[in-house]
Amino acid sequence: VSPARLLDGRKVAAAVRAEVREGALALRASGTVPTLAVVLVGDDPASAVYVRNKDKAAREAGFEVRTLRLPADAPQAEVEDLVARLAQDDGVHGILVQLPLPGGLDADRVLELVDPRKDVDGLHPSNVAALALARPGLRPCTPLGCIELLDREGIGIEGRRALVLGRSRLVGRPLAALLLERDATVTVAHSKSRDLAHVVGEAELVFAAIGKPRLVRGAWIREGAAVVDVGINRLPDGRLCGDVDFEAASARAGAISPVPGGVGPMTIALLLRNTLQAASALAGERA
Ligand code: NAP
Predict the structure, then answer these.
(1) Hey, which of 142, 180, 181, 242 has its CA 20 to 30 A from 132?
(2) For 167-190, what is each residue's pLDDT tens digit?
(3) Residue 156 carries which DSSP code?
(4) What value does the CA radius of gyration of the chain take, rounded to a whole number of Å?
(5) Residue 100: is the preceding peptide bond cis (ω within 30°)?
(6) Digit-coded pLDDT (tens) for 48-89
(7) Residue 1: pLDDT band with limits 50, 70, 90
């Protein structure tokens, strides 16, 4: 068996980002400076890294970025006031609240204050409902990134048996909805699912979003399946790995995304595309 083709998220993300940059420059030329506001509460080191990467990528793509920091002990009202002000601010086109918020803060109440038109993470209840109802709206970036990776690598979705492992609000649920929108036959599995090996073995497209290092064994993968690994797990030696046993799965899969260098870069690229979409729509409304 020939080893799986690598689904190179870095390469594909670079192509998406180049397209977004053209769109952002065109908006600037027409008088709108597309602007992303990033809200970071507290000093979680992983969140700080994510925010720095998003900030850098957004600037490279031709956006203005305003990073707004609040201390970990900021009261709920202060976080809400900040987000509400950004929602009102005509100079801001995209709002991203970096999650998780420090313990004690109610993230749902904060997210509800984001203007749905600026909700570049696709987590506002209006956008969640729009996805469930198959209406237009802003969609979550990581699920969009998974789909875009397959599309740009020429892997078909329509009519195929797709398995989503995980049912979180951030990844699994919206990904399942997007796949359904794209006419896949969708199964969702989670921690209560029985006989994962069998369920995985049925799937032509496997999306793993669990957060457990190498939980998905290579031997479970159907011969020729496409595997998209969303998981980001830190091993005791400090290295990152996905939710899929990459080495073993590569021997059976037709195509597989690595960790790092797979879905991670795609997530940032689709955040930028969402920001462009939001800025273009808002500029159009105001024209
Ligand atoms: P999460 O909220 O913790 O959800 C994990 C899901 O996996 C839950 O639905 C859970 O089931 C399910 N699960 C847990 N153990 C399982 C098992 N043994 N068998 C089957 N399902 C199991 O995590 P998340 O936010 O969706 O993130 C998932 C992973 O993706 C994490 O590693 C995260 O770091 C990574 N991630 C990566 C990106 C990226 O840009 N690449 C973005 C977001 C997240 P229950 O619902 O039954 O509890």
Answers:
(1) 242
(2) 999 999 999 999 999 999 999 999
(3) -
(4) 19
(5) yes
(6) 999 999 999 999 999 999 999 999 999 999 999 999 999 999
(7) low
SS3 91: coil
d(CA 34, CA 92): 7
What's the CA gap between 257 and 183, in Å, rounded? 22
The answer to whether the Cα torsion of 89, 76, 173, 272 is positive or negative is positive
Testing ligand 1's pocket by substitution, the residue of 51, 230, 244 carrying the most ligand atoms inside 8 A of its CB is 230
Nearest CA to ligand 1 atom 6: 166
C-alpha 115 to ligand 1 mean position (Å): 27
Q: Which residues pair with 64 in a beta bridge?
A: 35
Q: Classify residue 224 as left (phi > 0), alpha (psi -120 to 50) or beta.
A: left
Two tokens, residue 75? 């009261």
**Is residue 191's pLDDT more than 80?**
yes
Give the tokens for residue 202.
């049925």
